Amino acid sequence: MGYVCVIGGTNVDIICTPNEQLNLRDSNPSKITITAGGVGRNIAENLARLSQQVKLISVIGNDVNAQIIRDNAILVGMDISHCMQVDMPTSMYVAINDSNNDMLVGANSMQSAQMLSQEFLSGKLELLNGASCVVVDTNMYHVLPYVLSVVTVPVFVEAVSSAKILLAKPHLKNVFALKVNHDEALALTGVDVDNILTAQLCYNNVCDKVENLYITNSQGVYVCTRNGVSFVKGIKTEVVNTTGAGDSFFAGVVLGYMLGKDVTQCACYGQACSMITVKSPSAVSQQLSLQTIIKLAEEQL
User: Fold this and answer.
1) E-only strand ranges, 206-267
2) Which of these, 118, 141, 175, 227, could form a disulfide with 210 (CB 3.0-4.6 Å)?
3) Which pLDDT band holds residue 108 (cuts at 50, 70, 90)?
């Protein structure tokens, strides 16, 4: 079985969910969790939990938070031996949810991610091109031009945020699959995607750079290819926490690719992963398993 190489952000997540309606400018009794996080690292952990061999290239600091990352990697069987270690704090992300478990505001300190360099990646070129595919999140937009110019296997790109996809926009080329949400699609192309027609217009803006485009929203995902656009409905479920749902969706897409599925089937795998994840208080669900996701995805086909 081949492996997936993920290049992306690694950080520690602090997720705060108030017990009742949030009162601004006051202390709110809440449930607070501290876990390993980061978009790229989340995608990698999801894939590891889905029985995929995954190698993470990221940046880890020299503080106590770095040990949280290492302990998690050992627990799930994720290879982080190719990460860069720097003499500065590990990146951190804080999310404040409302009492309905939906994120109100997030904050991040991601300075260490910028330490990942083209020079460092050049020493990993054999590793990258030996993978079945490479996943890059746009926290690493500064090395994206290099990755897209030297990697010969399919490259999957996760938009991360409206701001980050704008930073990555000038460098997009040779992208096998790009995943954006509604707001990221709007920032990238100026198209307000709310139906098949507008999804097609959005894809037309990037089709010379991106082969397959996934545009997610709260109802499902538009799957855009050179053969047209389709819509895959989401799976209704109880929502406990939305942080990490997009990361798990994209991991499901990559899983589908690794299993030889077509782009629409890959979206079904993504929806299955996302459905499991939003029922978890963590950004990555401990309930993920290859067998469960295959069963859920096949039920949608």
Assistant:
1) 210-216, 220-225, 228-233
2) 175
3) confident
The CATH number assigned to the domain holding 58 equals 3.40.1190.20
Instruction: Give the pair of three-digit tokens for residue 161.
Output: 């945020």
Give the Cα separation of 205 and 186 in Å (integer): 11
C-beta of residue 145 within 8 angstroms of C-beta of residue 167 = no
- What is the rounded CA–CA span in Å between residue 55 and residue 48? 9
Smallest CA-to-CA distance from 227 within 253, 198, 263, 274 is with 263
Contact 181, 219 (CB under 8 A): no
Whose CA is closest to 205, among 190, 222, 192? Answer: 190
The predicted pLDDT at position 115 comes to 94
Tell me the C-alpha to C-alpha distance, in Å, between residue 163 and each of 160, 217, 244, 290. Answer: 8, 18, 18, 33
Helices 263-278 and 290-300 pack at an angle, to 10 degrees, of 120
String of b and e for 219-253 (b: at least 16 CB within 10 Å)?
Answer: ebbbbbbeeebebbebbeeeebbbbbbbbbbbbbb
Provide the CB-side half-sphere exposure for 163 (13 A, CA). 2
The amino acid present at 263, given as its one-letter code, is V
Question: What's the mean pLDDT when you consider all of the chain?
Answer: 94
Domain span including residue 160: 3-300
Could you tell me the CA-to-CA distances from 228 to 28, 198, 201, 203, 262 in Å, in that order? 48, 12, 11, 9, 13
Structurally, how many domains does the chain consist of?
1
Q: What letter represents residue 242's amino acid?
A: T
The rounded distance, in Å, linking the Cα atoms of 175 and 54 is 20
What does each C-alpha distance from 180 to 118, 173, 210 come to in angstroms?
25, 16, 12
